[in-house]
Amino acid sequence: MAVTSPLKPEDEMLNWGRLILDGVSYSDMVGARDRPGDVTWFDYWMNLASEYESEAERKVALGHTLSAGEFLMSASLCAQYAQFLWFDERRQKGQARKVELYQKAAPLLSPPAERHELVVDGIPMPVYVRFPDGPGPHPAVIMLGGLESTKEESYQMENLVLARGMATATFDGPGQGEMFEHKRLSGDYEKYTSAVVDLLIGLERVRPDAIGVLGRSLGGNYALKSAACEPRLAACISWGGFSDLDYWDLETPLTKESWKYVSKVDTLEEAREHVHAALETRHVLKNLACPTYILHGVHDEVPLSFVDTILDLVAPEILTLVVEKDGDHCCHNLGLRPRLEMADWLQDVLVNGKAPIPTTIGFDHHD
Amino acid sequence: MAVTSPLKPEDEMLNWGRLILDGVSYSDMVGARDRPGDVTWFDYWMNLASEYESEAERKVALGHTLSAGEFLMSASLCAQYAQFLWFDERRQKGQARKVELYQKAAPLLSPPAERHELVVDGIPMPVYVRFPDGPGPHPAVIMLGGLESTKEESYQMENLVLARGMATATFDGPGQGEMFEHKRLSGDYEKYTSAVVDLLIGLERVRPDAIGVLGRSLGGNYALKSAACEPRLAACISWGGFSDLDYWDLETPLTKESWKYVSKVDTLEEAREHVHAALETRHVLKNLACPTYILHGVHDEVPLSFVDTILDLVAPEILTLVVEKDGDHCCHNLGLRPRLEMADWLQDVLVNGKAPIPTTIGFDHHD
User: Fold this and answer.
1) Please, are residues A128 and A169 in contact by the beta-carbon 8 Å criterion?
2) Model-level pTM?
3) Which residue in the list A28, A70, A148, A152 is annotated as catalytic?
4) Which of A268, A273, B119, B155 lies most in the core, judged by the most C-beta atoms within 10 Å?
């Protein structure tokens, strides 16, 4: 089912800053905007994915694996942004291509991403793990995707975490990426996070006492619930997340369609009911015991009442609350700064064992 | 003397792709475009430089030197792009700030930039050297700035070279950055390149037989002449360079003002004569003996006749000629791909000792 809209897809895109910060080339974004009238958004990005793949194959043949990895990562991101606004056959076509291209990129990334083939409740669940320099054991951060983002898209954020001496782990949970065909969005995401904790604890190069979780957007909801339900998690970041979906009516039409799609239901009303039940976390937030970092932008469509909920339910001594007065959803519009802040906080908590400093930061370009 | 123009500075900027690829934040560029009407371009960027500097100081106090280095590097770039379109008091104010901020960033970069205080013919000439992982000795690449770019701006390209196992060295020559007050643009840039070769050969961690030079824009002209005159250089890249200034009349008004400024003359006619004499390389190009890589964009204001000159004067067995049919000046509009290509070529020649492959590459997003 296609969503009809008077807007061109690029106008509906939540945030060009997101694409840039996640690694999409500015020149490719300009190319998408200025593409010929007979080339669709989907085809533009899918063709570009294939061109990057060809470049990567040429680079592999010449022994230039670093560049090959970069090109395949770019290709995978192109496939992601080809599909992410539609719910018809383009969706699965783009998703499958993204998965395929990332899998080719994984061993060529620096550091490489090791693929572990988990099976949880009979469902195959590949997990990618990347390690920083040195023999370890290292702290590790499990990174959670969101409503339409998946394990393939956290590459740039992973690099910031890796540079600070922590391993990273990514996977798709219910309703996401490779798991979507097996399981829709559900109220038990934390079970899958815990399966990754099991995996990491079994790896010699990981410090079992220093495993954190970081989730973005919907992943920030999953991160809160995962950390509340899993005592082995030693740090939690909710990056543009939310505690509940009481604010359904504030969601954009496209986002509501997206909720319906990942819920595998026929109507928006069913979607509303399903996600409202599945994404409730308030009953467990009081169980949060590890250092917890909340990043929220005042201009996010997630209402500011979320901050009140957090202040009500999370113990102040474990809470670092960052509310950016100029920030949009996930603060993608603020550049690298909020990401560096999160990476440094993880380093403080997981690498250096420091107690987190409660802070509210942000600076205004026009002061 | 201020240049008056009906265009806003951001319209005159050669290429936003350049800013992004050199490390300016997309969000800061958007902020510059959308800044309040009473904030000048210069003040916007200079204020932002100070804000990044404050963030860096906060990070240093917290022990987060990696982020501090990033913020100071961002601050230095902000100061660069504050001043780069003017030739009045803003010019030296912005330049001085850029130098100061980069000097603070240098020890915090990853890997750090070591400052060496050379003096050449009585002129102080600081050189920054960065080394890749491992004890070495490593090949090294001397990077040359251009008409208004300096040793502080090649950070992102340095990182690509470092990741491939080569050290980097940067400095300001006649007419550039810190040397401008002591010496205007002159016909002997190669003397200063050779002084850096002397320095590098004296460093234990550098392989004296594997030192290359890479210059961008006007630096691409200097690179050609440096390599033609300095037999110890083992590789040369001219990135958006030129062999001569026969095409003066094709230059934009702002670029002509810039030539006049760095020549320290009073009229455009004097500037034309001075740079025409100083930047002639055709008489020495036949002496080029090391592998030489030329990157040229068909849409560069440097005319395509430059390619004919290269084909006439440079021996085919040492030449890799890359002409990008969609490329603008320095091919900044093509994203990371041309930069990866140059970094890989340097790796082939300097690290792996491979003979360069003559190639002409490029792909079209709309094929």
Assistant:
1) yes
2) 0.94
3) A148
4) B155
